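Revision sheet: structure tokens.
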Amino acid sequence: MSHLEKRTSLGSEDQIILAIETSCDETSVAVIRNGKHILSNVVSSQIDIHERFGGVVPEIASRKHVESITVIMEQAVKESGLKLNDISAIAVTQGPGLVGALLVGIVAAKTLAMALDIPLIGTHHIAGHIYANELVAEMVYPCMALVVSGGHTELVLLESEGSFRMIGRTRDDAVGEAYDKVARALRLPYPGGPYIDRLASEAEEAVPLPRAWLEADSYDFSFSGLKSAVLAVINQMKMKGLELNEAALARGFQESVIEVLVTKALRAVKQYGAKQLLLCGGVAANRGLRASLQAKCEADNVPLLIPPLPLCTDNAAMIGAAASLKLKRGEYSDLDLKADPGLSLEAWSVGAS
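Predicted:
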């Protein structure tokens, strides 16, 4: 579709959101129509910059956002085929995230919203990951979201559109953090998830590792002990002068993570009568997790939604999808909007403010 065709296809009732995401180490801007249709989604990653440090350096991330944000905004608008006066609202990630990185996006969003005299919508980053599913399929309520993103491992019940209820969360290391720490111990590059996933797929056997189930009725998660168990195996092999089977250890670690995630997610689906299970967040790109969850959901006849890989990692399209929930209800943010690294997902629910 040409740019002209995109412009003339807009109806008078179409709501166009320009969304900005700068919560961590991706600078992203997208243009979304009616919360479901991506007109553009530009992502600039900083992985190659932070890789040498083994993790994200907040000051460097913020500086790169400052350098990139204007260029990325211009590119997203150009690729959408629209003009600035076609935009109905500006959405921006308010939190959670790195405070300096969040501030870059918020300042840009405020400036554009004020210049165009259109609404500003501060948006929850995890709500974005959940509603990335709405960009590819229809979400049916009530549904259960398994969020595996960076510092977040959570089970979230959505009883209705835009209503979030936390029923389980990590008590220590989130899945993504555990992957990165284990990868560092195995001398694998950052980010560790893709490398462990690939290494695990090559193993013919798995090193037995514990599963952290916590209390019998708990939906919380804990991966700190599993990380420690991996380190113990590495240290024992070194002390005995034996060669470490890194692939088998990676597979044992991944199998432990996946079994706990899948088992608790499906138990939650059944207990709360969810009609769908949603897999959300950057770790949703993990092939082992996707395959295991798909197989188990098929066996249990549970409908499963997983976004395509580009919509699993941080991107602005997902922020636009979540912000549309607020836009159609007229729930806007003031221009004194502040970055909130500890922003509550439940408090962000539609109608909660």
